[in-house]
Design brief:
Oligomer: single chain
Strand content: 5-15%
Shape: extended
Largest sheet: 5 strands, mixed
Mean pLDDT: 87
Number of helices: 14
Radius of gyration: 31 Å
Order of helices and strands: HHEEHHHHEEEHEEHHHHHHH
Helix content: 40-55%
């Protein structure tokens, strides 16, 4: 029967009594649903701020405390002293070497407790330069005295600057920890007693991140370095540059993180970062950018977590035998994931890994064999996942155990930028976007290599280089 909206008066007159009753019930249900929706929208509009709960109710809130499977719980370890630290050790003896209850001699052991703190307000270091200047009375030429610690352009309005340590801490707070510039300048004043403005931080970042700046050169080095990596995971997220939509792309390995902001996310932008001759392994999601012909010969590992989620979404909408295809496929993919985790944790050797992996590959090939399914959604999943399996992009990690079966590394790498996006409104212009990609890449790479972010930035500003990669285990 046609829908109510497509019937005219003449057609309605021709309907039977039962058909008219069905139409009345249909319209009544639609009106009730619309009334409920309108009521919810009116209540939401009346709120002064967005609610913390997204309408799921109190029952959906997570219980506080550590959850199972979230990693081992351990006590805080003793802080490791750095060469510049001042360590004082105080012995705390027992009041008596005998038991207060029975008088027996005690078995004495020593346990360590510690308190780590910083000075209430560290002394500021002010280095003054009394620069002699001269002017020729004949030709009017001007000459200034020179000093290795005094930049040639430090005079006039910019004669008084802050040092590299203060700048490095500020950049670490803003670009790595995600603090706003206003809060960063405020925090620097509280911690060091040195006043600095947002404009000064922005101007210094722009200068340092340019092509001739120390950060800009380090960033170009990271871009060259990522092209030589054997396995690279990549992902992207939405960004805004000058109020217009753009994309923040990230490329990650265990010791390198490189970001770039571009107006579009196509295979050309991926090749811009990796180079057209990149022949290593690329870990990705199911984005269309990675399906271009330019990547036909490139080995890829599609994220199994994304595939499992897609299969679960389809399975929720099915009943009966229509659920068997997605359910069995998920079981096989989870078995492959479990096998990789066993090998990574050292529970099985390579021989066992290859043997069981071969069985899983045969089973998946059988499940994804080319055929016609009665359910169109299951057919769509069969065609899409089957095509990727035929190209060796589903279980590549069973042949290359060094490849992670999920794209979790890239997801984690983009997460801090996503959080910063909520408080920064992204980049005001292309210059700001360029500064962000440089600073984010350097600070994230320093963190991956186990370096102190502020100390690493200060070292770069004083002529140092990026620390060496951490050897893979």
């Amino acid at each position: 029967m046609n829908t109510v909206s497509t019937l005219d008066r003449e057609e309605l007159r021709k309907l039977t009594k039962d058909q008219l009753i069905d139409i009345i019930f249909e319209l009544s249900e639609k009106l009730d649903a619309q009334a409920t929706r309108i009521d919810a929208l009116e209540r939401a509009a009346a709120r002064s701020a967005s609610p913390f709960s997204k309408g799921k109710g109190k029952g959906a809130k997570k219980k506080p405390g550590r959850k199972k499977g979230k990693g081992p719980f351990c006590n805080r370890v003793e802080p490791k002293a750095m060469p510049s630290d001042q360590v004082e050790t105080t012995k705390v003896p027992l009041e008596s070497g005998k038991c207060p209850e029975c008088g027996e001699n005690l078995d004495v052991k020593v346990e360590v407790a510690s308190t780590i703190d910083a000075p209430a307000m560290p002394p500021r270091v002010i280095e003054r330069f009394e620069v002699e200047t001269g002017e020729c009375p004949s030709c009017g030429a001007k000459v200034r005295g020179r000093h290795p610690d005094l930049p040639a352009d430090q005079f006039g309005a910019c004669a008084h600057r802050v040092g590299v340590n203060v700048l490095a801490r500020a950049f670490a707070m803003h670009y790595y920890s995600g603090m706003t510039l206003r809060k960063t300048a405020e925090a620097i004043g509280i911690i060091t007693g040195i006043g600095i403005t947002q404009g000064a931080l922005t101007q210094q970042a722009k200068k340092l991140c340019g092509k001739d700046g120390c950060f800009g050169k380090a960033y170009l080095g990271l871009r060259r370095e990522i092209r030589r990596e054997p396995v690279v995971n990549t992902d992207d997220t939405g960004w805004r540059t000058g109020g217009l939509p753009s994309y923040l792309m990230g490329f990650f390995t265990p010791s390198v993180a490189v970001y770039q902001v571009r107006d579009r996310h196509r295979h050309q932008e991926v090749q811009e970062m990796l180079g057209e001759d990149f022949d290593a392994i690329l870990g990705t999601d199911r984005g269309t950018s990675y399906e271009a012909k330019a990547f036909d010969l490139l080995e890829q590992q599609k994220c199994l977590s994304h595939l499992l989620k897609n299969l679960s979404d389809v399975e929720k909408t099915k009943r009966g035998r229509a659920r068997c295809f997605t359910r069995d496929l998920k079981k096989t993919l989870r078995a492959a994931l479990g096998l990789w985790r066993e090998y990574s944790s050292g529970k099985i050797d390579m021989i066992e890994y290859r043997r069981r992996g071969g069985k899983i590959e045969l089973k998946l090939s059988c499940q994804l064999r080319n055929r016609v399914l009665s359910d169109k959604d299951n057919q769509r999943m069969l065609d899409g996942i089957g095509m990727q399996h035929d190209r060796g992009r589903i279980l590549l990690f069973l042949r290359h155990p060094e490849v992670e079966p999920t794209n979790n590394r890239a997801e984690r790498g983009l997460r801090p930028a996503v959080i910063a996006r909520k408080v920064s409104q992204c980049s005001r212009n292309k210059t700001g976007a360029g500064i962000f990609e440089v600073m984010k890449s350097i600070t994230a790479t320093l963190a991956l290599r186990g370096q102190n972010i502020a100390a690493g930035l200060a070292d770069l500003m004083t002529g140092g280089s990026m620390p060496a990669k951490v050897p893979s285990r």
